[in-house]
Amino acid sequence: MTTSQKKVEGVLGSDNYFHWQFAMRMTLARKGLLAHVQVVKDPAAMTEALLLNDMKALGMIAQGVFVEHHTKIRSATSAMQVWNTLLEFYNRTTMHNRVTMTRRLHEFNMEDGSTMARHLDQFDELIVGLQTLGEPLDDS
User: Fold this and answer.
1) Which branch of life, at top level (predicted)?
2) Which of 4, 5, 35, 140 has the greatest number of C-beta atoms within 10 Å?
């Protein structure tokens, strides 16, 4: 796999939030920045070093988002704000989101030229999304 293929898979688009979230958590953990999206910090207790690391985490997350999604996170001032904004947007449990995800499941087909591994990854992504929305899934 080339570097450009790895880069594209690690960028948040419209249909890969759950895959992206895991990959971004692992990237932040590897850089020692995961706490900036997991722990709410008291603004009064922020040191210059913590602020610098928070900006690094914010930058990494923003770089991992396709340009068309930048409007969702443009006004955020911390990594936690960006993380929560994306979480809220992609984990909406509205009727529209449930119907859209269910429709995607019913219309799910293997794309021409795609590998079986890619097809199964896309299916897993769809199932995780449905489970997050609380949709009951059975084996049929």
Assistant:
1) Eukaryota
2) 35
